[in-house]
Known about the structure:
The protein is rod-shaped, with a radius of gyration of 22 Å. It has helices at 8-26, 32-75. Helices cover 78% and strands 0% of the residues. By secondary structure, the chain is mainly alpha-helical.
Amino acid sequence: MSTIDFTNKEKEAMVEKLQAYFEKELEQDLGQFDAEFLLDFVSKELGAYFYNRGLHDARAVLENKLSTIDEDLYAIEKETN
């Protein structure tokens, strides 16, 4: 899997979400550096699981759409003798 590059704005948003979670749920202050380090770790070590689940879900949607198209094609087939 190739590296997924996020914009600085996306990274900032994710870091803020981590910091807010630590504050609200764990009552711990997570500094900027620690939050970025945690984000890098989660991305590197767990990111592929989320990526693969996204591919799995996209594949299911595509298969469903292709099935519908296939049914539509059979529906317009002309009768032959």
